[in-house]
Specification:
The chain has 266 residues and is an alpha/beta fold. The protein has helices at 9-59, 76-79, 81-84, and strands at residues 98-99, 109-116, 122-127, 129-132, 163-167, 172-173, 210-215, 220-224. The longest helix is centred in the N-terminal third of the chain and has 51 residues, at 9-59.
Length: 266
């Protein structure tokens, strides 16, 4: 009886080489598909947050949570907790779930914080979404942030351009039209420049040149990184003149930090 011939070493090496070549061709495509799926999942999660914010504002006569006007107990992770019911994954963009033990912020990292709770206790949170804190229903100024800048309620026109909640490196921020873009991305030494650069918490390339946003009409869409400066962050934002970091404000492509020049201008 004739025995079957096995593979020679050369034949095995050829097969291995072909498999390696196919993997090299397919892996980038699979990576792109994975990132697209994560972006879709992120937008679905933000749509769920839109429902939760709507439930909250409907319950409180159109008012947003007080936030820092009262204290940590009324920040969004606490205020909306009855709606997400300790489903901790809801606080995370699917692309940004890794927690940095040193507490650093980054495009694909989740930041952590322990907040006081309404019951008088405390809760450890990990999140990679953040709120536009100008939505807070706050009485009186917050430091150098005038009271007349706060949205406080949902009763406004142009809701489609008023950001509420989004991909972020921090759980909240107070963007202003004069906030300068960071010179380097978060993962290469960039970061927020204090109260004069809080818009940069949202200036992150998480979704192939885009970041995902929930607006006050509860719609969700991709936002370009340079588009951030065109959004209506607070009631008096760009009221008298466009932000200088927009085309209407005189910004040219070469004026942007090098890492941002490849993105679409607005």
């Amino acid at each position: 009886m004739r025995k079957g011939r096995g593979f020679t070493l050369i034949e095995l090496l050829v097969v291995i080489a072909i498999i390696a070549l196919l993997m090299a061709i397919l892996m980038p495509a699979l990576s792109r598909v994975k990132k697209q799926a994560q972006s879709v999942a992120c937008m679905a999660r933000l749509k769920s947050w839109g429902l939760m914010f709507k439930f909250y504002t409907d319950e409180y006569d159109g008012k947003f949570n007080p936030g820092w006007g009262v204290g940590e107990a009324t920040l969004w992770p606490n205020a909306l907790r009855p709606y997400y019911r300790d489903d901790w994954e809801m606080l995370l963009c699917p692309t940004a779930t890794r927690i940095d033990e040193q507490g650093r912020e980054g495009t694909f990292m989740a930041m952590t914080r322990t907040l006081a709770t309404p019951s008088g206790g405390s809760q450890y949170y990990a999140f990679s979404y953040g709120i536009n804190s100008w939505t807070n229903h706050m009485y009186g100024p917050r430091g150098d942030r005038p009271e007349d800048c706060f949205w406080k309620t949902t009763a406004h026109t142009g809701q489609y351009n008023i950001p509420v909640f989004a991909d972020s490196t921090w759980h909240d921020a107070w963007p202003r039209e004069m906030d300068a873009p960071i010179q380097l991305p978060w993962d290469f030494g960039g970061g927020d420049t204090g109260t004069t650069g809080e818009i940069n918490h949202f200036c992150i390339d998480r979704h192939n040149g885009w970041t995902n946003f929930l607006f006050m009409d509860w719609s969700v869409r991709h936002v370009g990184l340079k588009e951030l400066w065109t959004l209506k962050w607070h009631r008096n934002y760009a009221k008298d003149a466009p932000s200088p970091y927009t085309k209407a404000g005189g910004m040219t492509p070469s004026d942007w930090p090098a890492w941002l020049r490849k993105y679409k201008d607005y």
